[in-house]
């Protein structure tokens, strides 16, 4: 119950900040352009809170549906305007002013992303140091010369104190189907360089969690004892006779000393009859187990309905590092991170439009709420990182040339600058209908993906 409450609070806080900053960007520039603001609304639908402020008696509203907001300005296209107020109507502003007002919302989100990344880098981001664990013989990593025990020092000249830095650079290279140059420090203490070719890896592999399998290595991690903590009733493990407290010793004759390795073997054994040897009450017992089929992110995997036993501390310490900078260096890093996330988002959208990436990668409000909750559990720096990522995504989405979005309005203004007159209102209205249907379809698909992930 507490986890659900934390997820909801984190989601509401994140969404509230993102929407408020976006709409305040429109509001701030419109006020300075002399446009009268009639309403500033956070959310849609029935008002929960209303109050008027300022010389223009602007109505500030918090509405029931918290999935967005809007700034309503004086506009002759939406109702009669007194002659004395016409110079303050949005539609009567110059083209540059209208462009500035519309673009201010997405730009405010870019600014927010920069600020939260700046705060994140000054506060410090702690993560696992990029040590290589097991390397699959014959895989991309092994052919490139990576070895177990190597520590990745930098990727394409970028320092990689923690795994996050390695992954962000790798994702960008995969989107471009390029190779990356790694500087590593071997377990023998000697530095060397290797090249990883990512041309055979797709962005869908990343979204399915297959990155390390495709590259052919695992991050070094502590081994988790393969002890069953709970058996789900009526699932394969329960029907085979496995019980809470059993320690898995062997699977089809193969020794098992790590829970995650056991899980991976189960996931790849759909429909196979497996011989499992466990230790129970000081003696070995043998069971026959047949994993059942389950679909996860579009892949068929095996499941047995068994959960790992909780443990207080890992059996071996995890090597960690903290990425922290002074004010000026943190600002430069924040600017780089904002740029990189923006470019990565655009590349990803391009691949989806071209059909080179699955639309199953789209996430809706349910997934975003889950990510908000999980990042909040990991601390302030991780929540700021999440906030920056979503802020950039919101900015990029709003700048797409789709009617109903800020980018759609900017597209009309570009046409106006070319033909020297406003786009006819009938054409704009038709475009609004098309844009609305497109956005509703996109939202429906994202929510469908969210539900399928849960199922």
Can you walk me through this structure?
- The protein has 455 residues and is α+β, with helices and mostly antiparallel strands.
- The model has no long low-confidence stretch (mean pLDDT 86).
- It has helices at 2-32, 95-123, 140-144, 163-175, 203-207, 211-215, 236-240, 259-267, 327-353, 365-377, 380-398, 406-419, 425-454, and strands at 37-53, 58-73, 125-128, 132-135, 151-155, 158-159, 179-185, 191-197, 217-219, 228-231, 247-251, 254-255, 274-280, 283-289, 292-296, 299-303, 306-308, 320-323.
Summary tags:
Pdz3 Domain, 45% helix, 13 helices, 24% strand, four-stranded antiparallel β-sheet, 455 residues, 18 strands
Number of E-state strands = 18
Rg over alpha carbons: 27 Å
* Spatial order of strands in the largest sheet: 6-5-7-8
Bin the strand percentage.
15-25%
Helical residues, percent = 40-55%
Provide a brief overview of the structure.
With 455 residues, the chain is α+β, with helices and mostly antiparallel strands.
């Amino acid at each position: 119950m507490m986890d659900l409450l934390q997820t909801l609070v984190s989601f509401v806080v994140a969404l509230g900040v993102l929407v408020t900053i976006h709409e305040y960007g429109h509001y701030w520039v419109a006020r300075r352009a002399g446009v009268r603001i009639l309403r500033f609304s956070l959310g849609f639908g029935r008002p929960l809170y209303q109050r008027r402020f300022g010389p223009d008696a602007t109505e500030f509203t918090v509405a029931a549906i918290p999935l967005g907001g809007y700034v309503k300005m004086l506009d002759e296209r939406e109702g009669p305007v007194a002659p004395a107020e016409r110079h303050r109507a949005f539609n009567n502003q110059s083209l540059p002013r209208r462009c500035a007002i519309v673009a201010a919302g997405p730009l405010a989100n870019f600014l927010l992303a920069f600020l939260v990344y700046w705060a994140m880098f000054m506060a410090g981001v702690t993560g696992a140091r990029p040590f290589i664990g097991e390397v699959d013989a014959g895989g991309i990593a092994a052919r490139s010369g990576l070895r177990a025990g190597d520590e990745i020092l930098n990727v394409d000249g970028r320092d990689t104190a923690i795994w996050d830095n390695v992954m962000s650079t790798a994702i960008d290279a995969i989107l471009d189907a390029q190779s990356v140059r790694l500087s590593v420090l071997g377990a023998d203490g000697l530095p060397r360089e290797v090249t990883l070719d990512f041309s055979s890896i797709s962005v869908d592999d990343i979204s399915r969690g297959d990155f390390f399998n495709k590259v052919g290595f695992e991050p070094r991690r502590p081994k988790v004892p393969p002890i069953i903590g709970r058996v789900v009733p009526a699932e394969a493990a329960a029907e085979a006779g496995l019980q809470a407290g059993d320690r898995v010793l062997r699977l089809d004759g193969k020794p098992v000393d790590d829970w995650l390795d056991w899980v991976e073997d189960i996931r790849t054994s759909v429909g196979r009859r497996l011989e499992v040897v466990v230790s129970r009450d000081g003696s070995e017992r043998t069971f026959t187990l047949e994993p059942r089929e389950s679909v996860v992110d579009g892949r068929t995997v095996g499941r047995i309905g068994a959960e790992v036993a909780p443990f207080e501390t890992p059996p071996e310490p995890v090597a960690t590092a903290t990425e922290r900078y002074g004010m000026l260096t943190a600002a430069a890093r924040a600017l780089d991170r904002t740029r990189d996330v923006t470019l990565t988002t655009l590349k990803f959208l391009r691949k989806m439009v071209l059909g080179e990436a699955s639309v199953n990668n789209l996430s809706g409000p349910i997934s975003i709420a889950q990510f908000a909750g999980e990042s909040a559990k990991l601390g302030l720096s991780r929540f700021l990182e999440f906030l920056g990522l979503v802020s950039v995504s919101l900015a990029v989405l709003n700048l797409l040339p789709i009617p109903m979005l800020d980018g759609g309005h900017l597209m009309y203004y570009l046409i106006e600058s070319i033909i020297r007159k406003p786009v006819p209102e009938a054409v704009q209205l038709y475009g609004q209908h098309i844009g609305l249907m497109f956005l509703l379809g996109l939202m429906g698909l994202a929510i469908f993906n969210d539900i399928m992930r849960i199922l």
